[in-house]
Amino acid sequence: MAKKVVILGAGYAGLYCALELNKLATSQDAEIILVNKHDYHQLITQLHEPAVGAKNPEDITVSLNAVLGAKPIKFVKDIVVSINKEAKTVELGNTTLSYDYLVVALGSETEFFGIPGLKEYSFTMKSVNQATRIREHIEKCFENYAKEKRDSMLTFVVGGAGFSGVELVGELADKLPELTAKYNVPKDKVKIYSVEAAPSIMPGFDPELVEFAKKSLEDRGVKFSIGTPVVQVEPGKVHLKSGDVIETDTMIWTGGVRGVQQVIDAGFETEPRGRAKVDEHMRALGHHDVWIIGDACFVLSPEGRPYPPTGQISTQMGENAAVNIYSTIKHMKLEKFEPHLYGAVASLGRKEAVANLSPKFKPKGWVAYRIKDASKMRYLSSIGALFKK
Ligand SMILES: Cc1cc2nc3c(=O)[nH]c(=O)nc-3n(C[C@H](O)[C@H](O)[C@H](O)COP(=O)(O)OP(=O)(O)OC[C@H]3O[C@@H](n4cnc5c(N)ncnc54)[C@H](O)[C@@H]3O)c2cc1C
After folding, report:
1. How far is CA 239 from the centre of its chain?
2. Where are the domain boundaries for CATH 3.50.50.60 in the chain?
3. Which of 57, 170, 194, 244: CA 20 to 30 A from 48?
4. What CATH class has 3-37+78-110+257-342?
5. Superkingdom of the source (predicted)?
6. How many angstroms separate the CA atoms of 96 and 208, rounded?
7. Could you tell me where in the chain the CATH 3.50.50.100 domains are found?
């Protein structure tokens, strides 16, 4: 009888897992059920674009019905509430599902590091809906400035200068001047701050590329505050450890990720930030019927460093989990998760990017921007969504 495989989350990891398992297994081997709270797949790696209005939300979503087509994958649009690993069931908003094998690919939540006021008074950017909220708020700031004339309405702070923070700052630097023209606001009133606790922006990136990125953004007016942790946020104010206070109506926090609550509540073994510990085959520790993949898990490289939470690694985890579920069904040897790291490309707005591809190949500027575009196209093609919406 076919094994019931329930996959929670249709992001990079979960969707890839479902598609790969469908390629390997026949319907006699596995009944595949994919659960997601929306009926679309989000290109989270592009969220900074709709967050400033550079693209529409529809440009970075893909209909799951279009991707799944006539494939024998059952899609359930619902919210995952909890997992009962002993009963082998998942509680959804509207029903309960049982499983033989479970894949948890619910992504991550935002880490606020216990900083007072940060959660309450900042925007986060982890979904298309959150990006839309940021865009609407930015427009409102410009719109209302004509009436209220408070400088804090045109001061934008991005907390965290990792990958997503820098990409967002780049988009803001390119888009806000357009809004000054639209709302007839003096350009010099607009301020963009990038605040980072670590001693450098974009940790892990090649120093030459980091320098290029910093200069490119500074040339477009971005002010960096590096090595200065945010210590408190209150309405209208961001307090830094240096003692500086930035008066702003807009704090966008991109400074950290943590695991998802459903994994913690289910009692799976996690590291201190709630990401699940998994074995070399991506199974939850001590649970050979549960795979936890993507940002929801924590995996160390052979050098002992955690792999970064990226779309690239998440899809590879999805592929590995699919192979190992199939091998489990067929009583075959499992495969170790050994990712191929192809480097990373961070955009710096509408025209430039930096690409950390290899020690010898580190393109920057327009060429890197085209590489970023090409990698998005390659990804869409790999999930069969290049011409589907
Ligand atoms: C702004 C930004 C830029 C980034 N840029 C890059 C980049 O350039 N390159 C790169 O490699 N990585 C980048 N990343 C990181 C990358 O997006 C993540 O590592 C990746 O999305 C993780 O994939 P995932 O499948 O684990 O989770 P997600 O892609 O987050 O997917 C999780 C899925 O689960 C669903 N879900 C969540 N909770 C529930 C629930 N309770 N019930 C039902 N469904 C639920 C969500 O709707 C979603 O579909 C970026 C991240 C951000 C935020």
Report:
1. 26
2. 118-253
3. 244
4. alpha beta
5. Bacteria
6. 52
7. 3-37+78-110+257-342
Q: Is 294 exposed, middle or buried (0-12, 13-18, 19+ CB in 10 A)?
A: buried
Å from CA of 125 to ligand 1 middle: 10
Atom of ligand 1 nearest to the CA of 48: 1
Which atom of ligand 1 is closest in space to residue 347's alpha carbon? 8
User: In the structure, which protein residues have their CB atom closer than 6 angstroms to any atom of ligand 1?
Assistant: 9-14, 35-38, 42, 44-45, 47-48, 79-80, 105-107, 125-126, 163-164, 167, 294-296, 309-312, 314
pLDDT of residue 252: 98
Token pair belonging to 97:
């599902």
* Ligand 1, atom 4: closest residue by C-alpha: 45
Give the predicted TM-score (pTM) of the model: 0.96
Half-sphere exposure at residue 80, Cβ-oriented, CA atoms within 13 angstroms: 27
Nearest CA to ligand 1 atom 23: 12
CA distance 100 to 177: 54
Distance in Å, CA 243 to ligand 1 centroid: 34
| Residue 204, pLDDT score | 84
The 10s digit of each residue's pLDDT in 321-344 is: 999 999 999 999 999 999 998 889
- Ligand 1 centre from 41 Cα, in Å? 10
Report residue 32: phi and psi, to 5°: -100, 125
CATH topology of domain 118-253: FAD/NAD(P)-binding domain (3.50.50)
| Model confidence pLDDT, tens digit, residues 48-104 | 999 999 999 999 999 999 999 999 999 999 999 999 999 999 999 999 999 999 999
